[in-house]
Amino acid sequence: MGFYKSNSTKKISNKGGFILSxxxxxxxxxxxxxxxxxxxxxxxxxxxxxGDGGVAVAVVGLSESGRTPPxxxxxxxxxxxxxxxxxxxAVYVTGGxxxxxxxxxxxxxxxxxxxxxxxKFIPYSISQIVGAFCGAAIVYxxxxxxxxxxxxxxxxxxxxxxxxxxxxxxxxxxxxxYFSHLWGPLLxxxxxxxxxxxxxxxxxxxxxxxxxxNLGPFMIGIAVAAIGMSFGVDAGYAINPARDFGPxxxxxxxxxxxxxxxxxxxxxxxxxxGPIIGGGLAVFVYRWFIEKTLIERxxxxxxxxxxxxxxENITERV
Length: 318
What we know:
The protein is mostly helical. It folds into 2 domains: about 1-30, no CATH class; about 30-295, Up-down Bundle (Glycerol uptake facilitator protein), CATH 1.20.1080.10. About 65% of the residues lie in helices and about 5% in strands. It contains 9 helices and 2 strands; from the N terminus they run E-E-H-H-H-H-H-H-H-H-H. Helix 1 (about 35-65) runs parallel beside helix 4, helix 2 (about 75-100) runs antiparallel to helix 7 and helix 4 packs across helix 8 (about 240-255).
């Protein structure tokens, strides 16, 4: 940050005949909170456009386009790798502005950690949710014909009915049918988001291994793929309140009704509360078990090195 726009210049003469030029400058909106919010909006839009887009290809795109045999769409790996690439590429596009949170749970964790002022948390979260909403709108506009064809093929007459849940999953998450209560999905979201933030904190901590060569976004994408492959099926691994709530709201508007709100078992709030708790826990877990250890070990090494240098200086003087 540091781009400024000069509005006017005032010249002042002093007794020595020197002319002092004082530039009165005004910050461009790109150098204010607005620039950060637009980056969060655009980054989250990209995340959802390519993440939900990958799910759309797997659920309806491949089969209804005739690019695979009927009833043989994409598999879980297509979805997990699709989200991984979506995360990595969105961070590469917008991360230079403010780090590309694209996730209220990440912003919450960064606020706890002290890397984000608390006053920015709500504006960041709103921008992320709006970006996710718009990303879902892009996916729907591109794939609504495939969704309609899928519904005709499977005799689904209402998006708000039981059959509509198949394509609702393109946009937002829901618990697996083997759950009869929400404690399991809630714990799943807490755990999955805690893992996500642990990976982010470890990858971005230069006191740790220190990812080199601008590979940080790529490795965070790999982390998302790992979570999806290992902990994704219980509740669809939203691990991001904006990623779920924005598209869920859009899906409700276009007619998914009870599949969106309140969702199965009244699930709609779980991908909001669970990730916030998990993100906050991750900061304390990483700080207590990893970061403090790294700091203390680095301090001991520095003191030992300083002691060796001091001993060598004393020897040389003697």
